[in-house]
Hints:
With 154 residues, the protein is of the alpha+beta class. 34% of the residues lie in helices and 36% in strands. The chain has a 7-stranded mixed beta sheet, with helices on both faces.
Amino acid sequence: MFLSLRPADANDARQLWEWANDPVTRKNAFDSNPIEWQAHVEWFTQKLADPDCRIWILENHGTSSGQIRYDRRHDCAEIDFAVDPNSRGQGLGTVLLELSAPKAFDALQVQKLIGSVKLENQPSIRAFERAGFQRAATVARDGELTVRFERTHQ
């Protein structure tokens, strides 16, 4: 595999929308409702312009295979990622986290990266663990148990 990260741009809107509306992605999201196209376009346009947000696309031999987003909140950045449904089971969630974490620390000037994962989402839990994130807590979020992962800047 030849894997690389690139910044997301407006041309990625449809691909990210399709990934976001994948049934497995919706099941693992904290808001499981389908996402309307126009709402996604507006949200995505705002995120691309937001200085407190970074979105990177993982490419495997030039083919988009996943996305990761970091949203700065004070001295921390919250993580959201998704892997192309056709690329799942290959460890790409771990790769997304490993490749993007140093970039996020630098680009957003934060001291900690935080990810929250539903307890039943074992692939994402494994991705965080394999990428060297520490389990910080198990907490209830929106009525569901979640695992909170953290990594501090070194």
